[in-house]
Amino acid sequence: MSENFFDLISSRHSVRSFKNDSIPEEKINTILDAATKAPSGGNLQSYQIFVVSNPSEKERLVDSAHGQGYIAEAPAVLVFCADPKRSATEYGERGENLFSIQDATIACAYAQMASHNLGFSSVWIGSFDEEKVSNILNISNNLKPVAILPIGIANETPEVTPRRPLEEVTQKI
Ligand SMILES: Cc1cc2nc3c(=O)[nH]c(=O)nc-3n(C[C@H](O)[C@H](O)[C@H](O)COP(=O)(O)O)c2cc1C
């Protein structure tokens, strides 16, 4: 058991301002590879990950996310999409409506932690217009955008956010 893991998860904070520095492709690939290490329903990996670095597409993502401008500041923006049909082949409705969303979500969480481990910062973006994001990515209804993850070098000292006490969020039965 590694104490470093707990240090790692405790030291990650959302960052909403990024420096201009780019991220080497090899590091992006390390982050993407870490995302694929996440568990998934039936190991189907019912998701697609889009890597957006084109400035005009990033601006369109800002618009889709109600003007969250830090998306365009980040050198790399990952968009995690669930692939409901893929999961449905094995798990029917539960795969379509739940597992594929969970698969994409866990993959994004792994990518966020991998980014942090490499010294990059990020913020999970869930507030966006799904249809606009689908148009930007040029995806059909077969894929459902679940999370946008802008990644880069922090240009701010992030706020350390509190957590609800354990007794409030857990129940022992
Ligand atoms: C499902 C989800 C949706 C979120 N959507 C947004 C968002 O649209 N914009 C934003 O700035 N932060 C968003 N966040 C980031 C949260 O605000 C942030 O994780 C939370 O305040 C805890 O702070 P921390 O990440 O620094 O620990 C989202 C996080 C999650 C998990």
Write up what this structure looks like.
With 173 residues, the protein is of the alpha+beta class. The chain has one domain: NADH Oxidase (3-Layer(aba) Sandwich), CATH 3.40.109. 47% of the residues lie in helices and 14% in strands. The chain is built from seven helices and four strands. The protein has a four-stranded antiparallel sheet. The chain is globular and about 45 Å long. It starts with a helix and ends with a helix. Bound molecules: flavin mononucleotide. Residues 13-14, 16, 68, 123-127, 161 line the site of flavin mononucleotide. Flavin mononucleotide (FMN) binds at residues 13-14, 16, 68, 123-127, 161.
Provide key terms for this protein.
alpha+beta; NADH Oxidase; 7 helices; binds flavin mononucleotide
How are the elements arranged and paired?
Blueprint: H1 3-11, H2 25-36, E1 47-52, H3 55-64, H4 70-73, E2 76-82, H5 84-117, E3 121-122, H6 130-137, E4 144-152, H7 166-169
Antiparallel strand pairs: 1-2, 2-4, 3-4
The site of flavin mononucleotide (FMN) has 10 residues, from loops.
Low-confidence stretches: none
Mean pLDDT: 97
CATH architecture: 3-Layer(aba) Sandwich
% residues in beta strands: 5-15%
Q: What is the number of strand segments? A: 4
How far the N terminus sits from the C terminus, by CA atoms, comes to: 27 Å
- Shape verdict: globular
Structural class determined from secondary elements? alpha+beta
CATH homologous superfamily grouping: NADH Oxidase
Tally the structural domains: 1
Number of helices: 7
Bound molecules: flavin mononucleotide
Strand order within the widest sheet?
1-2-4-3
CATH top level is Alpha Beta
